Known about the structure:
The longest helix has about 30 residues, at about 5-35. By secondary structure, the chain is an all-alpha fold. The chain is built from five helices and no strands. Helix 3 (about 60-75) runs antiparallel to helix 4 (about 80-85).
Amino acid sequence: MNERVVTMEKLQLIIVNVIFGLGILAWPFIFFMSIFLFDAPGSENSLLTLSLAYSIWTYPLFYGAGLIGSIFLYLKQAPRLLTMGVAFLPMIGVLWFMVSWVLIDVINEGKFAPS
């Protein structure tokens, strides 16, 4: 394999993992703030609110799996698409958050506790 291609693939992998790693810096603050999702009476019984909270709480798990998995696959010289796909695992949490937020807005009219 061309050395330049390997270097470019490695650089792309580093950039993706660093960008998702920046989310980990903000995560403790967001994690702490997520407990306030359950302030409204009845919100603890809302599946959509729980889904939103779980999407926040699991971000480090997706990031850790993506980071470790992508490095492992890169070292094993797995196909580039597979390696980058694993590096993008944290996007599951981000997309999960956005879908939960939209569903709360549409179904619960923007309230964390169902009416």
